[in-house]
């Protein structure tokens, strides 16, 4: 930016002192910035001898170019800038251009070399992890295992930090999502590797224990390989990555081509358009052939597929005529054909979305009790091999249902990052199912083994965690469909120092550590479930623009961001972010209470006293939350207590909201049914507070490894040596 300013400055006959000083300041700023940049580059060079020479040369070139620019812009104190005794930007504009080019090329070279070093660090870290994994596979004693796993844990922490930073730096959303998926696999598998290896060591002759352990090692190696593919932007054996095409992306591309006919009748062939539609309709067979698609959805999809073919035939007919004779009537007919074709594709898109999401909602609801997993744990401890075999068959059926659900959701996910998340979920169910079965068989063969029992627990937790993640994924997919850009609805109402809160000068923003996150996890989960309940209630309202619904959705969004904070995720990074969010949440709750009072003025029903009572409770609870959020605290323990209190009071507000929304909805419906529970009233207030959503920014989120819990496991494993 500074260099562009210099090169684009206009040569004027008269130059004021102000202009000369400005030019000199820019030149000095460039030189100082280059100096700081080069200092970092030289430090990197000294730590990496294999690239030291190249990096040093690039740094020298950059420094020289910066100094040249500073000399050429040293014009502020010259009475005669054009004097031959001193070459300046005014006498040698070409010199500035050359110096700028040299500077930009050398700076680019330094950046590229630094990037190569980062990639090398990640590869080296991966190689260390792989080497230690090989040692872990071969150990035969607990004592040796404890020592090597301790080293492995440290190496995984290092790898987590390096790949986390890289994930943050990635610009490609697809790569970012793939990296997040691979790192999530590594995080969960590290704990599985610990318990699976312990089980194998305790029961060395058990075939199911060996199969269980081998599966974990294999999956970790695949995840490590994928990280390196993303980092180096390469595929093994030079293969090209074939991205599966979803129905959503196919329809989007098809519609773009069809609508492009308005501008140009000749830019593609009718065969091209027909082929595109054929591919889309082939993918709809994933729905029509699925045993889990309802009869109604199947019939609608087949009907719309047939209609799409007919609409395209009509479009092609008019299009061919318009190419030969471009009359006004034909162009109007073409416009109608384009609109009808696009409308049909939109209806098809809506139908497959409904089929996939309704199936997912039903399956997730059906499997929330985890009855099969509970039964496997009980029968395993009992040593009942026959019952374990029966429940493993049921788990296999459940796995097939969930895998099919993921495949169908991928078609309607709407964005590439969400498609990748669906593929990752499918892989997780495919792999974790058989691993739970082998862990359960091991426990059934050794029912008194505490290690085998712990191992089964870990795999069951991974399954339950993935089911929970599917609920969030379904919510995000629905957000895309409803135009909320496919990102979790989180408020970006973060504090700015000196503006929002006087406490900011006193409080040091901190993050929750792993232990604190574990303590608050149950409360956070309760908050998460309440946000789902509130969202479910708001969706029942016919008028989504209703003021009560708007406030309810906004509060649910903010509560969801606070839940993410308890997991160490989302946009609220520090405790101070959370406290500020709690204040905003409480304010939104007070506004909702005002809207409820306005609504109650129109109510004639017996429920009016109940409504007013709940509204007063809401005001009181929100005031308590506001006082807690604004209270000044110091010290780690006091800060955590305040965090806990804020989440608790937010949960209480959300509980009230879950009671208020159905009550208000019922009163509105009574009115529509003609029961006259509402007075004729002036129009709803127009000064509604519109709640915003954050822009789509994948991550999608740079998740952190849950490695500290592994370190705790390693610390507590010394007892194994005595056994």
UniProtKB/TrEMBL annotation:
<dbReference type="GO" id="GO:0051015">
    <property type="term" value="F:actin filament binding"/>
</dbReference>
<dbReference type="InterPro" id="IPR030045">
    <property type="entry name" value="CTNNAL1"/>
</dbReference>
<dbReference type="GO" id="GO:0007266">
    <property type="term" value="P:Rho protein signal transduction"/>
</dbReference>
<keyword id="KW-0963">Cytoplasm</keyword>
<dbReference type="GO" id="GO:0005737">
    <property type="term" value="C:cytoplasm"/>
</dbReference>
<dbReference type="GO" id="GO:0007155">
    <property type="term" value="P:cell adhesion"/>
</dbReference>
<dbReference type="InterPro" id="IPR006077">
    <property type="entry name" value="Vinculin/catenin"/>
</dbReference>
<dbReference type="Pfam" id="PF01044">
    <property type="entry name" value="Vinculin"/>
</dbReference>
<comment type="similarity">
    <text>Belongs to the vinculin/alpha-catenin family.</text>
</comment>
<dbReference type="InterPro" id="IPR036723">
    <property type="entry name" value="Alpha-catenin/vinculin-like_sf"/>
</dbReference>
<protein>
    <recommendedName>
        <fullName>Alpha-catulin</fullName>
    </recommendedName>
</protein>
């Amino acid at each position: 930016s500074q260099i562009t300013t210099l090169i684009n400055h206009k040569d004027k006959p008269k130059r004021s002192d102000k202009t000369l000083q400005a030019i000199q300041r820019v030149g000095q700023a460039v030189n100082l910035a280059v100096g700081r940049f080069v200092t970092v580059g030289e430090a990197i060079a000294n730590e990496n001898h294999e690239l030291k020479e190249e990096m040093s040369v690039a740094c020298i070139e950059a420094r020289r170019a910066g100094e040249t620019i500073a000399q050429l812009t040293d014009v502020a104190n010259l009475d005669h800038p054009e004097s031959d005794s001193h070459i300046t930007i005014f006498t040698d504009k070409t010199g500035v251009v050359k110096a700028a080019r040299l500077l930009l090329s050398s700076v680019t070279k330094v950046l590229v070399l630094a990037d190569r070093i980062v990639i090398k660090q990640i590869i080296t870290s991966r190689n260390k992890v792989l080497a230690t994994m090989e040692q872990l596979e071969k150990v035969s004693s607990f004592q040796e295992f404890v020592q090597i796993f301790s080293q492995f844990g440290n190496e995984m922490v290092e790898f987590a930090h390096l790949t986390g930073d890289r994930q943050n730096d990635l610009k490609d959303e697809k790569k970012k999502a793939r990296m997040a998926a691979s790192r999530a696999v590594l995080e969960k598998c590290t704990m599985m590797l610990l318990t699976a290896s312990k089980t194998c060591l305790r029961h060395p002759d058990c075939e199911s224990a060996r199969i269980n352990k081998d599966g974990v090692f294999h999956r970790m190696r695949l995840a490590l390989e994928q990280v390196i593919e993303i980092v180096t932007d390469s595929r093994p054996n030079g293969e090209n990555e074939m991205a599966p095409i979803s129905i959503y992306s196919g329809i989007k591309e098809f519609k773009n081509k069809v609508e492009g006919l308005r501008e140009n009748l000749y830019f593609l062939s009718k065969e091209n358009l027909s082929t595109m539609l054929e591919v889309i309709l082939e993918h709809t067979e994933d729905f029509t052939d699925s045993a889990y698609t309802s009869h109604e959805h199947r019939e609608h999809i087949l009907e719309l597929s047939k209609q799409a073919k007919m609409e395209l035939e009509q479009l092609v007919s008019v299009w061919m005529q318009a190419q030969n004779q471009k009359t006004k009537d034909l162009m109007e007919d073409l416009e109608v054909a384009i609109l009808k074709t696009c409308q049909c594709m939109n209806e098809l898109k809506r139908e497959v979305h409904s089929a996939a999401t309704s199936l997912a909602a039903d399956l997730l609801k059906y499997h929330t009790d985890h009855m099969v997993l509970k039964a496997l744990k009980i029968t395993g401890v009992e040593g009942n091999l026959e019952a374990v075999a029966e429940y493993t068959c049921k788990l296999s059926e459940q796995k097939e249902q969930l895998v099919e659900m993921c495949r169908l959701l991928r078609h309607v996910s709407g964005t590439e990052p969400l498609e990748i998340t669906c593929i990752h979920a499918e892989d997780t169910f495919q792999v974790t199912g058989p691993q739970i079965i082998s862990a359960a068989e091991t426990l059934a063969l050794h029912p008194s083994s505490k290690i085998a029992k712990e191992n089964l627990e870990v795999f069951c937790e991974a399954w339950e965690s993935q089911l929970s993640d599917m609920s969030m994924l379904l919510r995000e997919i629905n957000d895309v469909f409803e135009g909320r850009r496919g990102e979790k609805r989180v408020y970006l109402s973060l504090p700015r120092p000196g503006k929002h809160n006087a406490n900011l000068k006193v409080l040091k923003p901190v993050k929750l550590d792993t232990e604190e996150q574990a303590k608050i996890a149950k409360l956070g989960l309760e908050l998460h479930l309440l946000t789902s309940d509130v969202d479910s209630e708001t969706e029942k309202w016919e008028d989504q623009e209703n003021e009560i619904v708007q406030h309810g959705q906004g509060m649910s969004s903010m509560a969801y961001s606070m839940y993410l904070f308890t997991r160490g995720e989302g946009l609220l990074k520090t405790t101070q972010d959370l406290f500020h969010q709690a204040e905003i949440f409480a304010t939104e709750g007070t506004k909702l209470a005002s809207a409820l009072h306005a609504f109650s003025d129109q109510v004639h029903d017996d429920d009016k006293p109940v409504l007013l009572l709940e509204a007063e409770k809401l005001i009181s609870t929100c005031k308590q939350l506001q006082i807690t959020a604004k209270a000044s605290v110091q010290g780690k323990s006091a800060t955590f207590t305040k965090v806990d209190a804020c989440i608790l009071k937010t949960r209480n507000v959300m509980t009230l909201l879950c009671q208020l929304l159905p009550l208000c909805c019922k009163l509105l419906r009574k009115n529509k049914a003609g029961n006259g529970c509402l007075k004729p009233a002036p129009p709803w207030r127009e000064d509604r507070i519109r709640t915003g959503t954050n822009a789509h920014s994948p991550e999608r989120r740079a998740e952190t490894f849950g490695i500290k819990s592994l370190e705790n496991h390693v610390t507590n494993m010394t007892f194994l040596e005595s056994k």
